[in-house]
């Protein structure tokens, strides 16, 4: 079985795959200070909650945007499974041409998302990854990575608002009953929620003007759930798109 590990700035998402089927997943907090041993203990605990033994894993694929953690998680993989993981980066076969000024600048997670989106939904497709940052990635009808945009994410916006506006409380991120808030918490929820939707809708609309063909829009990432039921903005919510991309890229490279 394959363990796919997606390391983001806020969360680490893990999934176990039996061939093409995801049989289990977890989302844990990213902690740059944790050692390989500490992550190994946590992994053993996660496996134990599902009554899984570590020996079921015979391959590991890793995508990371947090360089200080990459080496720790590689060591964890070797210690726990005796396996050196496939780390997504330059030199790894993805099957996706990168039409970017400097391909090495493109985050591994963005390429992984693009591979999965094109495989599952075809192209052209725009992937909106709603995490610490909100990233927009455009894949052509030929399966080429064309580029995208990066905006501050929900978490960054919420933290900044609370840091610079001392009287505003830190409320739960939920869709408010209406856009016009009737109390401070609802006003804040409305500003974040509908501000994000307006941002995504506006950027996607402008991108579509630069893309030929019928474009699909796929939302993924930790905050993708906010777009459930918002068919006018996104066509598909796929929270585990990155893990699926890791599985696909692992399959492309396992015979090499």
Describe the structure.
The chain is an alpha/beta fold and 256 residues long. The protein has two domains: 2-87, Nucleotidyltransferase, domain 5 (2-Layer Sandwich), CATH 3.30.420; 103-246, ATPase, nucleotide binding domain (Nucleotidyltransferase, domain 5, 2-Layer Sandwich). The chain contains six helices and ten strands. The protein has helices at residues 36-49, 67-81, 108-121, 154-164, 184-208, 241-253, and strands at residues 2-7, 11-18, 21-29, 59-64, 86-87, 125-130, 133-139, 145-152, 216-220, 236-237. Strand 6 and strand 7 (133-139) form a beta hairpin. The model has no long low-confidence stretch (mean pLDDT 89).
What's the SSE blueprint?
Elements: E1 2-7, E2 11-18, E3 21-29, H1 36-49, E4 59-64, H2 67-81, E5 86-87, H3 108-121, E6 125-130, E7 133-139, E8 145-152, H4 154-164, H5 184-208, E9 216-220, E10 236-237, H6 241-253
Parallel strand pairs: 1-4, 4-5, 6-9, 9-10
Antiparallel strand pairs: 1-2, 2-3, 6-7, 7-8
List keywords for this structure.
256 residues, alpha/beta, Nucleotidyltransferase, domain 5, 2 domains, 5-stranded mixed β-sheet, 36% helix
